Amino acid sequence: MRRNLSCYPLTWHLMDILEAAFSKIWPKKGGFWGPYLMLSPAILLVGLLVLGLAYIGDTSLRTLDTSTFLFSEEWSLANYERALTEPFIRSVIWRSILGATIVTMTTLLLAFPYTYIMVRTRSAFLRKFLLIALFLPFFIGQVVRAYGWLIILGKQGIVNDILGLIGIEPLRMLFNYPSVLFGLVQYMFPFAVLMLAPALTAIPEEIEAAAESLGASWQETMLYVILPMAKSGLIGAGLVVLTLSLTDFAMPAILGGGTQDFVANAIYDQFFRTSDQGFGSSLAVLLIAIGSLLVWIIFMLVGAGTLALGAKDK
Amino acid sequence: MNQPVAQKLFFWILIVISIITLSAPTLVVLGASLTSGNIIVFPPDGLSLKWYKALVEKQELQDAFIRSIWVAIICVLISLPAGTLAGIALVKYRLRKGALIQTYLLLPFTIPLIGSGIGLMLVFGEVGILGSLWPVGVATAVINLPFMIWAVSSSATGLDPDLELAAQSCGAGPVQTFFYVTLPSVMPGIITGSLLMFILSLNEFLVSLLLVDARIVTLPVQVYNSIRSIITPDLAAVSVVFIAVAMLAIAILDKIVGLEIFLKSK
C-alpha cells in the first residue's frame, strides 16, 4: 500500500527540506559545539553590554579640556581623582549607600510577613489576591508609580487635601530624602517577595509544628527556625534590593526633585547637562565598583544565598 | 495554620501596610483619570471620561504609545529566540565552563542599568544608529534577557530527555524533534518569558531616556517629561493605559501558567 511521494502532506516535504538544510549548516561535530551554538545569540547580545563597558572604561580615562571641549588623547586617572575628592560627589555616594541600606532593611521587614502569609495561607483566594496586589505594581513601571505618589503626597496632593479637611496646614512631603526612600521601598517590594517566596515554600510546615510542640513560642519559632532556614532567600532578596536601589535613577529624579540625587542621577547630569562624558564615565565605573564591593562584602560575611551559582545543581 | 493571635496581628499589620503601599499609586492614578475637574483634588469634583476623550487629540501621547509598543515587539522578537535557545542549552547539556557562562549571561542584572544604558548609548553612537527606534528594542532585550532565559530554563528542567530520544528513534530528525517535542514542552516558559519581556520593555524608562531623542520619545519618557512641569489629569488617563496592559498581562499569565508558579521552590 505504498503511496506516491507526492501524496505526502506539504508539511512533511517542508520538514524534509528543513532537516536537509539543518544538516548542512550545523557542524558535523554537533555533539560538542551544538550547545555553544545554541548559546551564541544570547552571548552575542550580552556582548553588546561588555562592549559598552569597555567604551565606558576608555572614556573614563580621558579628561575634558574645558577651553576646546575636546577629550584628551592620552589616558589619565584625573577623572577618578576628581570623583573621589569632590565633596558633592562624595555626599551623593554616601547618600546612595545609606539609602540603599535603609531601603533594603525596610523592604525585607515588610516583604517577609507578606511572603510568609502568601505561601502559608490555606485560602486560595487570599493567595491570589496577594499575588495580584504584588504583580500589578511590578508590571506598571517606575514612572507611573512615581506619578501616583506625586498625586498623593504633593503640596496640593490627596494627603494634604485630607489634612486640610480637618484643618491641618499642608505638609511638605515630597522632594526630600524620606520620600525617595519610600518610593524605592515600594518599587523594590515585589522583587523582594519574588526572591523570598521559593525559599519560604521550601520550608515544610511540619517543622513549625514540631518547634511549637517542643514548647517554642511563635517569636522563637520565627527567630530560631524559620528565619535561619529562609536565610538564603533573605540574602538573595537583600542583594537584589540593595544593588537595584543603590543604582536607581527614577525615584530620586522624580520624588527627590533634583535635590536628592543618587549616583545614577549624577552620572546622567554629567552626560546630558555638563557634557563631561569622561567624568560621567568614571562615576559609572565607580558605581559598578561600589556595587560589586558591597555584594562581595555580603558574600564574605553571610554567603551567596539563593544567588549562588552551581551550588544547587539540579 | 494555628497561629497565635499576637503573631496574626503583627503579621497582618505589616501586610496591610504593604498592600496599601503597593496599591495606592495605581488606585490614585485610576481615580485621578476619572475626575471632571481641571486639577486633581480630593475629594474629586465629580466623575467624567473627558480626560480620556482629550487623549484622542493628544497626537504626541498617541505616537509615544505606538513607539513604546514597537520597542516592546522588537524586544520580544529578539529575546525570544535567543533566550529560548540559551535556556534549553543551559539545562539540557552539561557544559564545560557552565558556571562561567551562567555568570556571564547574568551580567545584564549585575551591571547597573545606568551603566548598561550609557554603555549601549556609546556603542550605538559609535555605529551611528542612535536616533532610530529599533536599537531601543535591542537594548531592552539585552538588559532583560536573563528573565527570558530563567523562564525557559525553569520549565526545561521538567523536560524528559527520553522523550527526545523516543522521537528520534521513531525517525524524527533533529529539527522535527526540536519543533514537535522540545519546544512544546518548554512552551509555558516561553510564554511567561515573552510576556515578562514585553511588559518590562514597554515600561522601560531609564534606558529609553538615554537612547531616545526628542523625535522618538517612548511613552514612559513622555510621561516623565510631562510630570516635571504641570500635573494634569490627562497624564493620569494615559497612565491608565499602562495599568490596563499590566492587568491584561497578569490575567494572561494567570490563565496560562498560573501566578502560583512564582511561589514554587526550585
Features:
heterodimer; A: 314 residues; mainly alpha; two-stranded antiparallel sheet; 14 helices; 1% strand; disordered C terminus; B: 266 residues; MetI-like fold; 0% strand; globular
Describe this entry's structure for a reader:
The complex is a heterodimer of chains A (314) and B (266). By secondary structure, chain A is mostly helical. Chain A has one domain: MetI-like (MetI-like fold, Orthogonal Bundle), CATH 1.10.3720. Helix content of chain A is 73%, strand content 1%. In chain A, strands 1-2 form a two-stranded antiparallel sheet. In chain A, a hairpin with a 4-residue loop joins strand 1 and strand 2. In chain A, helix 2 packs across helix 14, helix 11 runs antiparallel to helix 14 (277-302) and helix 13 (263-272) runs antiparallel to helix 14 (277-302). Chain B is mostly helical. Chain B has one domain (58-263): MetI-like (MetI-like fold, Orthogonal Bundle). In chain B, helix 2 packs across helix 12 and helix 7 (134-156) crosses helix 9 (174-203). The model of chain B has no long low-confidence stretch (mean pLDDT 88). The interface between A and B is large, with 107 and 107 residues.
